[in-house]
Design goal:
The complex is a heterodimer. By secondary structure, chain A is an alpha+beta fold. Chain A has 19 helices and 25 strands. By secondary structure, chain B is an alpha+beta fold. Chain B has a single domain, classed as 3-Layer(aba) Sandwich (Glutaredoxin). Chain B has six helices and nine strands; from the N terminus they run αβββααβαβαβββαβ. In chain B, a hairpin with a 4-residue loop joins strand 1 and strand 2. The chains are: A alpha+beta, B alpha+beta. At the A-B interface, strand 12 of A face strand 9 of B.
């Protein structure tokens, strides 16, 4: 066993110094480099792949090139002879380094570079045969000048039927080379954001404390994409690594995903540099507006009409439909248009405000306005006033629409417009199926695209009116106006009062108890203002008093901001833990299944789900049986951590329900916005039942 | 007085804002090719603007570079130069190698090489300071540019689609400059308008 069984053959034949050099051996010397072909094993076994390496050692100061050579140069090549005796895989390039030659830059290797490749000996080989490997290596070696060099390398290995034994002489070489090969990026996400002139590579590190490099660089696989001489601008924050890449003036289209190698060096003494294979997918901003998003948004908007939080407003809609019944078709049509316009305008304004606030750095999502007590007060007073109008509809002589008229002092069109605005204000915090995901998509897009999506959502929401615009004949399907309407209107008023109650509850949760008293005092003034304006028919006085009511209510907020204790708000139940990224990470580290409930007091859909599904006994029992940890993320008040977590699941509003299975690294599963007992139980069924709990106390 | 000063500085600022992005503008297909001034190997002044109305080819050159040799020792480049000349295209060879670096030469040396290799371009521009090279962000030898009669870049990039130093690859390659020139002469738009050049680095 003393002499190695791998036999390196023949002589190094070096040709003239200037021309391409040829050699035919396991080792070849050329004027500027030395090339070797090495096998990891002493013998080979038919059909069993082994690794071979091309070792290229360049004269000091000279370099050769990576698969993307940068501004100039040519990649190292190894061309195998055509044979049935074996099959050779592609050359595996080690991580490159940047070789700067101002104003140009190359990606390549200096000193020694080792390229691995897989060889699979054919099944036709027999014990006692020799496997002859033969390949031509080609490399361009440059310092200031460039010289192409090539060598024919041969290697003869004995064939054995037994397991191939590793060659101890090459162990270190192969180990070190493998350790330095770029590894797949271990983080969850590698994304690419596009902006004029640059690309930003965003890498999300794995949750665990991940070493932060002091320097990082990125080398795209495809040539000509970036300005090679501009080093990637690297920064790290919040577990994300950002690398800014300058786009090449060639203007090549970006491949999606962008593949490349990221190299990282660490400041800690003794920390080895790391290299990762990165596949970054282009983030949504660059992707075009998809028709499917628009369609989903439209249908989501239509469904929104049926959601619990829109219900009080739906009653208003129904009423105005009925009122339109007595009018000319053309007029009804114009009213419908105005209503649709009102919906659109208020969606746009809401969206604009949201974008502005987010641009200012606020972590806000859809429904953000209901996180503001001031907005809640305005809404409460409005709904209350409308309820009053409906109850006293005989005295008023008109409908709630009269309120719109008196408010604007002009034609009934203002009322239609106002109806659209109000419907939007109440409806936006509510999530219907499709709405959650489309709003999530919309808000992650560039403004033009989100504008399009939200406009479709608004149109869907206004769809019943759009029907009237295009098919005025549909009016015939509505019941004829008559005495029944008075009763109906009064009934609807109590729906509005119920909504007022609900909003007052939400308000009380957002502020201190003393604030509630002020809000109620404000209601009293509103009621008085209403009576006053009815009695004396003085529009102006009504305005004044109304405003004073609002003013008082707003003063309230100044009095008592919510206590900092962040008491759990939405529904107090013992079983639910408070959500935080840390809590989630800990539970997942213990391999426990986790159910996340993103909720808010002002979200009626959330409340319905919690009451009718999540707190049901069979659901609770199923959670317990699978040892599922329950975490609640309460978004009643603004909470940047929760907003961020929501965005992480591609959402911008509540409810969102997320189920993590116990196995590590499992993808979270998002449940629909509207839960049913069967649906939750089914989802839980897919989680394995823990066999023995309490292995450790 | 003060008002004039303010006005002047405002104008200066505006001018700066207007000029700065233009100066930083990279050469791109469809945009104006920057004008340059250089002396050729026979001592004549050459500018791009003097060829307005004609198609112009710019070719970055380094006689010592294996990739340049690939195309000259095979007569590949000269053949294209002759064809272009016949069609009235102005072909300018540019040497941006700095003194002391590979490819740099005195006018006599450059002319000797032109004779030896039968280089058929209209002229070889000497750009020892790399001004023209940097203006065009020339990266490799060869690096090719085709400029239309209006002075706009119609093609920029590689000579062909085989980025190797081996002349044996030429017969099977697609010469991208020839394709661009053929399209231009036939009045068709140039298809592959920008490609990644290959070769040795320009020895600035």
């Amino acid at each position: 066993m003393k002499c190695p069984k791998a036999i390196l053959v023949l002589v190094a034949a070096i040709l003239a110094a200037n021309g391409p050099s040829h050699a035919a051996t396991g080792t070849a010397r050329t004027p500027h480099a030395e090339a070797r072909l090495v096998a990891e094993t002493l013998s080979v076994r038919p059909g069993q792949a082994f690794t071979a390496a091309l070792v290229l050692r360049m004269k000091p100061g000279w370099h050769t090139y990576w698969s993307n050579p940068g501004d100039s140069g040519e990649p190292v090549r190894l061309t195998w002879e055509k044979t049935d005796a074996y099959e050779a895989g592609p050359l595996q390039f080690p991580a490159p380094r940047r070789i700067e030659m101002f104003p140009l830059a190359n990606f390549g290797f200096e000193g020694e570079a080792v390229f691995l490749t897989q060889i699979t000996p054919g099944l036709g080989l027999r014990d006692g045969d020799f496997l002859r490997l033969k390949a031509e290596a080609y490399w361009l070696v440059c310092k200031e000048d460039c010289i192409p060099e090539r060598a024919t390398l041969e290697l003869k290995l004995p064939v054995r039927a037994a397991e191939a034994a590793p060659d101890p002489a090459g162990r270190e070489l192969f180990q070190a080379t493998r350790a330095a090969l770029p590894r797949p990026w271990p983080g969850e996400k590698a994304a690419l954001r596009e902006s004029p002139g640059e690309w930003r590579l965003v890498l999300t590190t794995p949750r665990a404390a991940f070493p932060v490099p002091s320097q990082a660089d990125f080398f795209p696989e495809e040539p000509g994409l970036i300005e090679n001489a501009v080093r990637a601008h690297y920064s790290a924050k919040d577990g994300e690594w950002h690398l800014k890449l300058k786009r090449s003036s060639l203007g090549k289209a970006l491949p999606n995903p962008l593949r490349g190698v990221l190299t990282a060096t660490f400041a800690e003494p003794g920390a080895l540099p790391a290299a990762y294979r990165v596949e970054a997918s282009l983030e949504a901003p660059a992707s075009p507006l998809r028709a499917s998003w628009l369609i989903a948004a439209f249908f989501g908007g239509m469904l929104l009409n049926l959601m619990p939080c829109v219900f009080p407003v739906l009653s208003i809609k129904v009423l105005s439909f009925v009122h339109r019944g007595g009018e000319s078709r053309a007029r009804a049509r114009r009213h419908a248009w105005v209503h649709v316009f009102g919906v659109l305008v208020s969606f746009w304004i809401l969206f604009g405000v949201l974008l502005l606030l987010r641009a200012g750095g606020a972590q806000l999502g859809w429904g953000f306005q209901l996180q503001s007590p001031v907005f809640l007060l305005v809404l409460i007073y409005l709904l209350f006033l409308m309820g009053l109008g409906l109850v006293s509809s005989s005295a008023w002589g008109a409908s709630w629409m009269g309120l719109g008229q008196s408010l604007a002092g002009k034609s009934g069109y203002a009322g239609s417009f106002f109806g659209g605005v109000l419907a939007t204000l109440v409806a936006t915090p509510c999530m219907a199926p499709l709405v959650g995901s489309t709003v999530g998509i919309a808000l992650s897009q560039p403004p033009a695209v989100s504008f399009g999506i939200l406009t479709c959502l608004a149109l869907g929401f206004a769809a019943p009116y759009l029907v009237l615009v295009f098919f005025p004949g549909a009016l015939r399907w509505l019941p004829k106006p008559g005495a029944w309407m008075k009763t109906f209107e009064q009934a609807m008023a109590f729906l509005l009062f119920a909504a007022v109650l609900w909003l007052l509850w939400v308000f009380s949760l957002q502020t201190a108890v003393s604030s509630l008293l002020h809000a109620l005092a404000g209601l009293w003034i509103v009621a008085f203002a209403f009576w006053f304006s009815q009695k004396w028919r003085v529009g102006k006085a009504a305005w004044l008093l109304l405003l004073s009511g609002l003013a008082l209510g707003m003063a309230v907020r100044g009095l008592r901001p919510p206590a900092e204790d962040a008491r759990p708000i939405a529904v107090a139940e013992a079983k639910w833990g408070d959500f935080s990224e840390t809590a989630l990470a800990e539970l997942r580290a213990q391999h426990r299944p986790v159910f996340l409930n993103f909720t808010a007091a002002w979200c009626l859909t959330c409340q319905v789900n919690e009451r009718l599904v999540l707190s049901r006994d069979e659901v609770r029992r199923a959670f317990a049986a699978k040892n599922v940890a329950l975490l609640k993320a309460d978004w009643t008040r603004q909470n940047p951590e929760i907003s961020k977590a929501l965005a992480g699941y591609g959402r911008q509003g509540v409810p969102v329900y997320v189920l993590y299975g116990g196995e590590p690294g499992a993808e979270p599963r998002l449940l629909p916005e509207i839960l049913s007992v069967g649906l939750v139980l089914e989802a839980l069924n897919e989680i394995p039942t823990p066999q023995a709990q309490g292995e450790t106390p | 007085m003060i008002r004039t000063k303010i006005l002047m500085s405002a104008l200066a600022l505006a001018a700066l804002l207007y000029i700065a992005p233009n100066a930083a503008q990279a050469v791109a297909v469809g945009s104006a090719a920057p004008d340059f001034q250089a002396t050729d190997s026979s001592g004549k002044a050459q500018t791009l603007s003097q060829y307005k109305g004609k198609w112009v080819v710019l070719e970055w050159f380094n006689e010592g570079c294996p990739y340049v040799k690939k195309h000259y020792e095979s007569d590949n480049m000269q053949k294209l130069q002759r064809e272009a000349a016949k069609q009235g295209v102005v072909w300018l060879t540019v040497i941006s190698s700095a003194p002391g670096k590979q490819g740099h030469g005195t006018p006599e040396q450059v002319n000797a090489k032109r004779a030896e290799w039968k280089i058929a371009s209209a002229a070889t521009l000497l750009d020892p300071e790399g001004k023209v090279g940097r203006l065009y962000e020339a990266k490799t030898t060869p690096h090719m540019f085709l400029i239309d009669p209006q002075g706009k870049v119609a093609y920029m990039g590689a000579i062909d689609d085989r980025p190797t130093s081996d002349p044996a690859d030429i017969p099977a390659s697609k010469n991208l400059v020839k394709v661009a020139l053929d399209a231009a002469m036939a009045g068709r738009p140039v298809a592959a308008a920008a490609t990644v050049p290959y070769g040795c680095s320009v020895k600035y």
